[in-house]
Amino acid sequence: MATCLPSWTLFLAVCAVGIGGTFQYGYNVSIINAPTQHIHKFLNETWSSRYHKELNPDLLTFLWSVIASIFSLGGLFGALIGGSMAIRLGRKGALLMNNIIAILASILMGISFPTGLFELLIVGRFLIGINSGIGLCVQPLYIGEVAPKHLRGAMAMGTSIFLTGGILMGQIIGLRELLGGESYWPLLLSSSCFPAFAQLLFLPWFPESPRYLLIDKSDELSCAKALKRFHGSFEYRREMDDIQRECFALNGEKPRKPWQLFTDRGVRWQLVTVIVMTMGQQLSGINAIYFYATYIFEQAGISAEKIPYVTLGTGACECLTALTCGLLIDYVGRRYLIIGGYLLMTIWSIVLTLSLTYQELYPWVPYISMASIFAFILSFGLGPGGITNTLTAELFIQSSRPAAYMIGGTISWISFFTIGMLFPFIVNGLKQYCFLVFLLECFLVAAFIFVVIPETKNRSFLDIKKDFDKLNFGKKNKKKATELSERRQLHDEFLKSSV
Description:
Structural class: mainly alpha
Radius of gyration: 24 Å
Oligomer: single chain
Mean pLDDT: 84
């Protein structure tokens, strides 16, 4: 039974990378909602004192839109450089360097109010977006590469657990009784420095990714030391053999650039899969759910003062499903969870469309809508929300993985920005029928995953690649597969003889 559980070093390493990684993304997405009115007031007062005239309402809306949306542009930039940082500095080194950006962003956002410079707030939000983009790219790389095969899914779920934990923590800290009050909003925005300091304090105690050390740096001794710390002196050999096989199969291939993946037939379907899953995650309707949540809670008779506390339930719901998915993923498998999640979201979209249509007719209908909100969030967290990043790590071998995360991150941030811009128009035009668009998208993504993606549970990266080679090359792959099999056999015989 002991071999089925992660060692304390592995568990604590996931925590150390998570607190300054995806936690920052969730936290900074969440905390900007609480001080909206206070920031509006700050913008009005700053403009009046600087230019001696009132701020035009349209310009106020524009400035607020810039403050809110520039985070996603920073995330896009972070995704574009995250893979390169992971290659140049290592996974651990990139995460440590990333904290400097977070601390600088926190300082700028914190001093924007006392200095009367709202421009610092904009720059700070852009920088914390860069930090989040890098974290979303590099953290799954590190976790996916240090985890043993039989626990890779559960440990990779640390990405989603810390992301949803960040959202929940941001909702809690943003309550008016804590830092959501008018006097404390600069402290709320600058509180992002605490996760950064925590990671700078704890992460240096853990080793670099063993796969990075051996495959990218050719440092077999450091790789063995890292594996012994992560897996123990008796269990590390199996992981070492797996890494050596992958290194042998790569035959000295260097880390690849994102544009090289687009021209490589050998990763064509993996790349299409990552793009479809990433866009599917962002365009699934989860943003529409949060948009409608306040309205539905009001219709259910919850007072405006209590709605922020009910909204905490949505954050807790996401966090709970991320934890549940982490427990199930290595038993149930990736395919069942992500397909099931999308199909359940399709069903709840139908229920929500009907309940919103007949919201005014019966007093009990708002409660159906409220239950559908939580059910949709549960379904999202159980499938698309948690497994998308996990699969991205598993579909590519070492030389292509950083570039794949750069592409996936770029698609994610562009989709995030696009849905933020278009969503108000979609809702205004279609009203509650917007969920019909989202249910169609969820169903199509589920169908794609069913047809294309093999089960990756408890399999090596090379075995997963072999499955995709059948899609990428078809009959032409037989000769290549035979050659690769012969090379693997020779390498395995070499390993046995060396032992």
